[in-house]
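Contributing: when you submit paired examples, paste them exactly as shown. First protein:
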Amino acid sequence: MLQSYDYVTMLVYLAFLLGVGWAFGRMSKTTSDFVRGGGKGTWWLVGSSSLLAGISAFTFSGNAAGAYDAGPTLLIIYLANTLAFLVHAAFLASRFRQTRAFTAADVVRERFGPAVEQFSAYYSVVIGALTGAVPLWALASFCSGVFAIPQDTLIVVLGTVVTLYAIKGGKWAVMGNDFVQSLIIYPITILLAILALREVGGVSALIENFSRPDLAADFSFVKEPGQFPGDNFTWTWIIAAFITQFLAYVNLGSASRYLAARDGREATRSALLAAAGMGFGALVWFIPPWVTRMLWSADVEAMAALGEPANSAYAIAALKLLPAGLVGVMVVAMFAATLSTMDVGLNGNAGTLIRNVIPPLRRVLGLSALGDKQLMLAGKIGTLVMGALTIALALYFSKLKGFRLFDAFLQINSLIGMPLIMPMIAGLVVRRLPRWSFFWILGMSAVPAVLSLFAATPWTYSERSLWVFAAGVAATLTAIPFYAREPADYRERVDGFFTKMNTPLNDEERGKSSDAMQASILGKASLAMAGALLFLLFIPNPAWGRYCILAISGSVALVGGLLLLGARAERRRLGANPEPTNAN
C-alpha cells in the first residue's frame, strides 16, 4: 500500500501541474490562443499532447488486464494506433493543419456544410463530459481498489486541478502539462519494464514463459473461438479491433490533433513523435502484467474486491518491484495518463462552444456577435461548467458496480463510436459525396448497432464492429453516384476544401515563432521536476533503489537541459532572422 511520502509526491505533482498551467496562462491572449495555442505549437509539444491524449489509466488497468489474461494479442490495438500515426505523418497531419481551422467542427463545416457542423458541435459538447468522466471514474475506481485512495476524493481533486489549469491557460496549458506528464510516464514505465524483465530472467526467459504449459493456450497470439468470453482474441476479434482502432484515428475528427501546430512540417514531425511514442510504449507497457501472470497470479486473484482482479496486474508489478518512493510516482503516471485525456476534452469542448455553438446561436437569435475578449470569457466559463459536469458524472458512475473495463470500452466503441466515425472517414477519403451523405452514412452505420441490441443472441464486439463497418462502406458507395447532381457551388466548395488542405501555410499565416518561450517554460519546469524527484533519495532504500531514483530524475533533467539549450539557440536565430508577427 501507499506510504505518506507517496501521498506527498502526488500532492506536489498536482500543485506542479497548476503551476505549469499558470505559467502558460500569459500566452493565452486571444481565442485562437485559448482554442489551439494560436497555431504556433512546436512539433514536440503538439506531438506529446497528441500521444498522451491517446492513452489513459485504462492502458494500465483495463488493457493491462487484457495483457494479463491473453498475452500479446491486445498489442494489435497499439499496432493500429502506431500505424495510424504513421499515416498521419505520411499523408494527413500537414493537410489537417493546412485547413487553417480552429476546431474539428470547423473542418466538418468546410467539408459537409453548416448542418453537419452544428450536429458535430452539439454532439461533441454533450458527449464531451461523458468521455472525460469515464476514464476519471475508471482511474478512481482502480486506485481505490488497489492503492486504497478514497475514490470520491480522488475524482474531485483530479477533476478540479485539470479544470483550473485548462481555464487559466487554455490549449497552451493543456499541451504544456501533457508534455510534463509524458516526462513522468515514460521513465517510470520503462524502469518498471526493466525491473520486471530482471525478475523473470530477461527477454528470452519472458518469451520462453509464453509456451509454459499453464500459459501456452492463453498466451498464443490467436485464440480459439469460445476460449475467451465474447470470442475475444480470435482472428475475427483481431481484425475488428485493428479496423475500429485504426479508423478511430484516421478520420476528419483527427484534425484536432494538429490544429495547434505551427505549420504542416511541424504537424508531420509531431505525428512521427506520436507514432514513435505509441510504438515504443506498446513494447514496454505490457511486460509488467505478463510478468505478473507468470510470477504473482495469486496476488492478483487476491484482489477480488476489484470485481475484475486482472485490472490490478500492472499495479501488482509496481508494488512488488519499485523501490520505496517510486510507487507514488507510478500512481502519478496513471494520473497523468488520465488527466491528459480529460484536459484535451475540456479544451476541445470549450473551443467548439465559442467557435461553433455560440456564434451561430446568436445569429439565429438576432443578437450581435461577441468580441474576442467576451468569447474568451465564455470559453473559460464553458470549461468550468464542463469540468463540473465531468466530475459530477464520474461521481455518479463511481456508485455503479460490476464495471469490466476491457470489455466495456470495446463495446461502447463498437456501439457508438464506429457509427459516428464512418461518415468522418468517408468525408476524408472520398471527395465525391453529396451534402446529405454524412447523415445517410451515419444512419446506415447505426442500423447494425441498433439491431444488435435487440438480437435474440447477443452480438459479440467483433460481429457488431464488422457489420457497422460493412454498412458504412455500403452507404458510402451508394451515395457517390449522387454527387454529380449536386449544384456547382457545392462542388466548388468541396474542391476548395481539398485544395486548401494541400496548400502549405505562407510565412504570414505561420506567424511569429514562440518556440523559444515554449522551450524555456518547459525546460525550467522539467528541471524543477527533476529537482523535486531528488528528494525521494531521503527515503530509506537499498543502493539500487537510489540508482533508480537518480535515473528517473536524470532523464527528466536531461530533457529540461536540452530544452533550455534549444530556447537559447532559437533566440539567437530569431535575433538574426526576425519573423512576421501575424498568425492565422
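Second protein:
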Amino acid sequence: MSKPLTATNDFVVRFANVNGSGSASANGLFAKVILRMGVPVGARNIFPSNIQGLPTWYVVRVSEAGWLGRRGGVDLCVAMNPQTWDADVKEIEPGGYLLYDSSKPLPASKFRDDITIIGAPLTELIAAEFSDPRQRQLFKNICYVGVLAQLLGIEPDAVKQLLTEEFKGKEKLIAANFKAFELGRSYAEKHLAPIGLKVRRSDKVGDRIFVEGNDAAALGAVYGGATFCAWYPITPSTSLAESFQKYCRQLRTDPDGKSRYAIVQAEDEIASIGMVLGAGWAGSRAFTCTSGPGVSLMNEFVGFSYYAEIPAVIFDVQRGGPSTGMPTRTQQSDLLSAAYASHGDTKHPTLFPANPTEAFEFGAQAFDLADFFQTTIFVMLELDIGMQEWLTEPFKWEEGRQLNRGKVITYEDLEAGKEFGRYLDVDGDAVPYRTYPGTHPTRGSYFTRGSSHDRYARYSEKGEDYTDGMVRLLRKWETMKAHVPAPIRRDAKRRTPDAVIYFGSTDPAMAEALAALEKDGVHLDAMRIRAFPFADEVFEFIRAHEQVFVVEQNRDAQLKALLVNEGGVHPARLVSVLHFDGTPITARFITRAIADKLKSGQASAMPEKAK
C-alpha cells in the first residue's frame, strides 16, 4: 500500500453524486466553510444536461498558496454514486482517501489497496433520526459534511454559522441540519481514525469574494447603464438574464415602485437580438445573453448591426459544441463564430474576461464600447466562469464615472446648423455621428438600412459608395485597438526564446503551470489576450520569440487562426496546446503538454540538464 498522503491546506476533494439528490448545497457548504476559515478554494461543479438521475461531480481545490484552477487528480473522494464508483475510485491519487456510505457492504474488489478506505454508515445514521424519504436523502449529504469536518479539522461552529445564515428564519430546518451534521461528526469522532489531510485556519482569503461570473456580468451590465434585455433561455447563459432582473429590481426601481428597465423573454434568439438592436437604435443600452447555438441564429442581425452601425452587447457564455454539443460543459469554441459573425466582410470586437471580476468590468465597459463604436460587442464568457463560483477580487467602481454615449448630435447642435451625415467620418477616426430618433422635427433624421448606402444614409449600389463605407468600417476597426482591454504580459525570470499566449478561464491554471515549469528550469514569457481586435503589442510579442505556445480550450485552434489571419503570423511560429473534453483545463495538462512538445523537438526553452 502507498504511504497515505499528508497535506495541510493543499489538497483536492471530489464529491461524486447523483444529479437531483440535493448534494449541491451540501458540497457548496463544504467549500464556503473552508473559505470562512481563511483558506482559498477553487470549486468546480461538473453536472449533466438533464434534470436528475445522471452523475454529477463537485471538485474542491483547497490551496493556501492561492492556486484556483483545476489541478488534476483527486486526493480525497466522497463516492456517493454507484454508477460511477469504479471511475471515481480510479481517479484517486496513490495514498489518497475514499469516503463512502458503508451502510451496505461492498466486495473487496471494489476497493484499491493503495488508498485509505473510510466507511461511514450514512444511510443508517440518517434513517435512525429522520422518517421523511426526501429529508433522508438531503440530510445524508449534510451528514457526510459532518464526517469530513471531523476528519479534516474543519471548525464545527463555522459550519453551523453558515447553516444558520442560509436558512435564516427557518428554525426547524436549521435544527434538523445541525442534527444531521452532528450525526456525521460524532460518528467520525468515535469510530474513524485521523487522516493525513487537514484544514487549518489561515488569512489568505483577504477581502476577496466568492461569486459566479454570470452574476458578476449582470451586475456589470447594470453599472454599465443597461436598461433593456431581450433573451431566450439557453444553458449556460440563463442565469445572467435572471441576475440582471434581480439587480434591476434593487437598483432600477423608483421608490414609488416604477421600473426603469425592461426585460423581455423573446420567442427565440433571432427575435431577442432584433429587439436589442431596436432598443439600441432608439438610444437604450441593450443586450442579450446566449451561447453558441444562439449566436449562430443571430448572425444576420449581427451583420445588420455592423453595417447599419447600431450598438448592442451580446454576452456569449460558451459551451461545448457543435450543434447541441455538451450544454453543461465548458469550452472556448465560439471565437471565430463571434469574431466574424454574419455573411460578407465583418469583424466584431470580442472581450475575454478571465474571472468574475473582469466579467463585471468588461460587462460594464462593453456598453461604452458599443455606444462609441456603434456596433455589436461580444463579451466572451465560458461556462467555467459563468456558472461557477470563483474566489475573486472585489468589484470596484470609480465614483463619478460617466457613461460614454459616444458621438451623438443633439437638438441644439442641429438647430445651430451643424452638418449631419449619418456615415460621415468627421473626426478622422472613422466613427460617425448619430442622432436618436425624434431628436429634431426636420433635421438629423435618416433611414436606417442594412443595404448598401452612401455617407448620408441614402440607398446606393454604386461601387464607390459601397467601397467607401466598407473601407471606413475597416479603419474604425483599427481605431478600436486602443480602446478595448489591453493584453497582460508576464515576463519570465530570465530571457527566453519561447513564450505562451492564452486567454479567458485558462488564466488560473496557466499561472500555476508557469510556476511549475520554472521550477523544472523551463522559462516562458507569457501574455494573456483580453480582447479582439488584437493590440499591436500582441504581434510584437510574437515576433520577439522563436516560437509561441497558444493554449486554448477548443479543437480547431481558433485563437491561433485569428492570430494568423489578423497578424500575418506564420502558422509554424505558433504551437497549439489544445484541451477540449468539456472540463476546465488543468495546470497538470498544460505543464505536461508544453514539456512534451519541447522534448519532441521544439527544445529551445529546455535547460541543458533537461535535454
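If you have annotations for the second protein, write them as plain sentences, like these:
Confidence is low (pLDDT under 50) at residues 605-611.
The two ends are 34 Å apart (CA to CA).
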